[in-house]
C-alpha cells in the first residue's frame, strides 16, 4: 500500500506542477490530457483537483505511516473510500462531459481503486482490539476477552 500511495503521490505532484506551471502534460493520447486539465471540472471551487489529489495521497501516506491500530486502519479505509468516490466522479466527467480521458487521471483512479481494495482487506483481516490475544490465547469475541 505504501508503494501505491507513493506512486499516486507522484502522479498528483506531476499534475499539480503541470497546472501551476501552465504547461501541457505529457500525453500519448493526443490532446486528451490537455482537454481534461483545462476543462471546467479540473477545479473544484477554484482549487485544482490535482492539488486535492495530492493532499489526499499525503493523508493516505500519513495514515499508513502512523502506528498500526484499528483507528488508523479505519482512517485509511475512509480516506481511500473518499478518494475512490472522487476519482469515480471525475472519471464520469471525463467520459460523459469532457469526452476525453487523461491517462494520468485514469492511472490515479486505478491506483486509488487498488488502494481502496487493499484498505478494505487490511481492515477486515486485521483483528480488532476486542479480539486481541489474552494471555497468549486468541479470542474471537469481546466477551471471551473478559
Give Rg in angstroms: 19 Å
- Strand arrangement in the largest pleated sheet: 1-2
Distance from first to last alpha carbon: 34 Å
The CATH level-2 architecture is identified as Up-down Bundle
As residue ranges, the low-confidence spans are 139-146
Write the H/E string, N to C: HHEEHHH
- CATH topology assignment: de novo design (two linked rop proteins)
**Shape category:** elongated
CATH class: Mainly Alpha
- Please work out how many helical segments DSSP would assign: 5
Helix fraction by DSSP (H/I, runs of at least 4): 55-70%
Q: Tally the beta strands.
A: 2
Mean pLDDT: 90
The secondary structure category is: mainly alpha
The CATH superfamily title:
VKOR domain
Biggest sheet features: 2 strands, antiparallel
In a nutshell, what does this entry contain?
By secondary structure, the chain is mainly α. It is 65% helix and 3% strand.
List keywords for this structure.
146 residues; mainly alpha; de novo design (two linked rop proteins); two-stranded antiparallel sheet; 5 helices; 3% strand; elongated; disordered C terminus
Report on this model:
- The chain is mainly α and 146 residues long.
- It has a single domain (2-145), classed as VKOR domain (de novo design (two linked rop proteins)), CATH 1.20.1440.
- The chain is built from 5 helices and 2 strands; from the N terminus they run ααββααα.
- It has helices at residues 2-21, 32-37, 49-65, 70-98, 103-125; strands at residues 43-44, 47-48.
- It has a two-stranded antiparallel ribbon with strand order 1-2.
- β1 (43-44) and β2 (47-48) form a beta hairpin.
- α1 packs antiparallel against α5.
- It starts with a helix and ends in a 21-residue tail after the last helix.
Amino acid at each position: 500500500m505504501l508503494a501505491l500511495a507513493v506512486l499516486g503521490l507522484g502522479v498528483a505532484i506531476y499534475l499539480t506542477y503541470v497546472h501551476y506551471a501552465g504547461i501541457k502534460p505529457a500525453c500519448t493520447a493526443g490532446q486528451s490530457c490537455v482537454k481534461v486539465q483545462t476543462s471546467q471540472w479540473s477545479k473544484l471551487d477554484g482549487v485544482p483537483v490535482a492539488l486535492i489529489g495530492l493532499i489526499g495521497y499525503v493523508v493516505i501516506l500519513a495514515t499508513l505511516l502512523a502506528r498500526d491500530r484499528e483507528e488508523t486502519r479505519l482512517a485509511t479505509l475512509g480516506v481511500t473510500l473518499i478518494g475512490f468516490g472522487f476519482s469515480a466522479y471525475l472519471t464520469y466527467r471525463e467520459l460523459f462531459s469532457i469526452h476525453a480521458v487523461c491517462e494520468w487521471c485514469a492511472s490515479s483512479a486505478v491506483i486509488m481503486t487498488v488502494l481502496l481494495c487493499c484498505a478494505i482487506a487490511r481492515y477486515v483481516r486485521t483483528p480488532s482490539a476486542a479480539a486481541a490475544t489474552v494471555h497468549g490465547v486468541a479470542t474471537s469475541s469481546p466477551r471471551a476477552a473478559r
